[in-house]
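It would be a great kindness if you could assist me with a short task in structural biology. The matter concerns a single protein, recorded as an amino acid sequence and a row of backbone structure tokens. Could you please explain, in whatever detail you think fit, how the structure tokens follow from the sequence? Thank you for your consideration; the sequence and its tokens are set out here:
___
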Amino acid sequence: MNPLARRIAAEIAATGPIGLDRYWNTALFDREHGYYTSREPFGRGGDFVTAPEVSQMFGELIGAWVVAAWRELGSPAPFLLVEIGPGRGTLMADMQRTIARVAPDCMRALRVRLVETSDRLAAVQAATLDRFDLPVRRVRQIRELEALPAIIVANELFDAIAMRQFVFDGDAWRERCVTLSGSGRLEFVLSRKADALPKTLLAGTAPLAGAVLEWSPAREALAAEIADRLARDGGAGLFVDYGHAATGFGDTLQAVHGHAFADPLDRPGECDITSHVDFAPIAAAFRARGLAVSPVFTQGAFLVSLGLRERAAALAAQAEAGKHAEIEAAARRLAGSGENEMGILFKVLGVATAALHLPPFGLGPAD
């Protein structure tokens, strides 16, 4: 066992099995040994590659989306350009470069805000964005943002937020928890009988024994906090994550280490833990606060609708001959539907104080 596993084991020995959400939060965010507080997860040298790291085209197209949304919102000045969970700052850098090139008036009006809980990642982001002659303010919580109109962008945000799992035993739903085996290793156990699952999650379902239901009150609470902020001060949001548009049964818990799947209970703090995002309750949280909510759309179709193919062709025309295949492969990875491609697995949700005349508003749902 590593030091964090020993600490978790000691807690279980003292108090009994812990919920998956408690284990998840400890493994990812423990101040000393947590995955996001102590490791470099991003890029080819880390454990996974996000869309902004695949190609500059992703951030450039999102930057163009920000400009179009800003103009539809009435070109407020000043306004906040907010990224929640900015990783290494790559997406924000690509967005700023694009906005400065295509819309200098928007660039003058924006105030960059990064919502980041990790001091280590905040330092990396500051270094990435240092080349821009713009003040960048980092905050730890959404509630620290100024009361100004905001355009909020988040890529792979909700998947990092803890969820809970419940298993139907043929008679009732029971919560899956983490306990200690007889040999002292961490293992899953069905524990608490679940009597507080939201009825909306179970509406119209007829589970068979062994069915797994995933529910994340924390993801819904985060969506509600963002929605309250936008409803009060105005603005729009764009959220990209992998998951599904409708609630359903299935075990999507996974861990990744060195770009390969790993045991979620093995080496806590050394592996990324994630699960597919259920967009249905997140969208409902935005609607409940009076915001216009787009259909949940696939990343591939969304990027193509913004001009991915045209941008790839333009980059290839300017690039050395040997780079053409690399650019084409990056575009395919962002929008394709094959193995290791992000086009279908990743989804996009847009929200705003009023429906916008740009994707993903007005597009058909993903599934």
Q: What stands out?
A: The chain has a mean pLDDT of 92. The chain has 14 helices and 17 strands. The CA atoms of residues 287 and 293 lie 6 Å apart. The first strand starts at residue 18 and ends at 19.
